[in-house]
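Journal club prep — side note

Before the paper discussion, L.F. wants everyone to see what a predicted structure for a comparable chain looks like in token form. Sequence:
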Amino acid sequence: MKTKIPDAVLAAEVSRRGLVKTTAIGGLAMASSALTLPFSRIAHAVDSAIPTKSDEKVIWSACTVNCGSRCPLRMHVVDGEIKYVETDNTGDDNYDGLHQVRACLRGRSMRRRVYNPDRLKYPMKRVGARGEGKFERISWEEAYDIIATNMQRLIKEYGNESIYL
């Protein structure tokens, strides 16, 4: 059985330059099919970047920095102490509906705020002149009484509009 080859194929002249061009274009086409664009991949969050231990509890909290976003935080607590803070990594991060809210570095550094040595942990009352920096520790009951007394005084003197709750 004899195959018929069109005369145009037999008459076509192939130059070295044409062969190199055609081979290069074919090679690029094959190579580009193996590559994908960065935005065409779907990223899935892993359950946790750091493996959890059996005595570790994960407590949900919120970022309380003054930006107003209130981003969710995952506090990893061992023996009542925060070991590290992780942002929300649950769910899909897609653009079909609501996107996943992740805390910025201010929120992720919440552990530093909690354990800062300058953080107030109990009520203080100024005993020196304003700006002098002299304070004494008072009980919570005394602090609540001072606040309530001053709020009542302000309402009595200036009306209900003088305070904002």
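L.F.'s comment for the group: The CA atoms of residues 3 and 102 lie 66 Å apart. Keep this in mind when we get to the figures.
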